[in-house]
Amino acid sequence: MLDMYDFNGTIWLCHSYGGNCYNVTSFEPAIGVLKEINTFLGENPSEIITIFIEDYVTSPQGLKKVFNESGLSKYWFPVSQMPKNGGDWPTVDDMVNKNQRLVVFTSKRNKEATDGIAYEWTYVVENQYGTEGMVAGSCPNRAESSPMNNAKSSLVLQNYFPTNPDEAYSCVNNSAGLISMMDTCYKAAGQRWPNFIAVDFYKESDGGGAAEAVDQANGQLACDCTSIAYCKKNGQSTVCEAPKLSPPPPAASSATDSTLPDSSDSNDSSVCRPPQQLHWLMVMNMFTTTVLLWWL
């Protein structure tokens, strides 16, 4: 997720207001980040990256020019091949074999015709971002998006981060609440799991965190399983081979219970642990982390 603006005669990454970039809100020229992505794709020939542009660029074909200058055009997934009306996307293998490993969306409809960049809201539904989108049990669409259950848009993007970044509380945000919201948005999106998950401070959690959420979503998308680790190839298909759960241990005696520490003495929300090493793919940027899921 990148906010792009015209600034100082070129295209910049900027988190600003009023449709303009200023010295105080500017980050860096977009070309540098795009060249980093170009290098990554060159060094990792089986990876796919998706970029969502919050687009404030008004210079004629400004986006097209900066992408061409970065060298990324050779990886471009063309708009003409994107599925309309909820159709299926190509498989990962197809995209890799054709070297069409960069998918780019813009928030401006006219850029599809002028710059060859897909208009996001034709292909993606997205829930409300910011604190309003973190209310338990609720997954409304953001204003620009069609309703979450609009099946004509085949991709689902789930936001889960507060309006004002709060690293100290990100352990809580990126843990149970994130997983719970994924279930809520699954129902709101017409029983569709997210293809993309956007969070702040993705490394912070009190457990598996964003990695665990992606692992679960990938498992559901790939083989209807609770973890991608349980998805196994079986001929031409992928099946779920989740381990059978062991029966719970017998209840502890009252004497044993009395020796256990009082859970009220601990503050789980203050305990941050590094995320587990799970099956996930992410793109980091200056604002949020978007986790990419291509199991279509």
TrEMBL record:
Region span, Disordered: 242-271
An example molecular function term from Gene Ontology annotations: phosphoric diester hydrolase activity
Bias (Low complexity): 252-270
Top-level lineage group: Eukaryota
GO biological process: lipid metabolic process
Pfam families assigned: PI-PLC_cat (PF26178)
The name this protein goes by in its record: Uncharacterized protein
Lineage start: Eukaryota, Viridiplantae, Streptophyta, Embryophyta, Tracheophyta
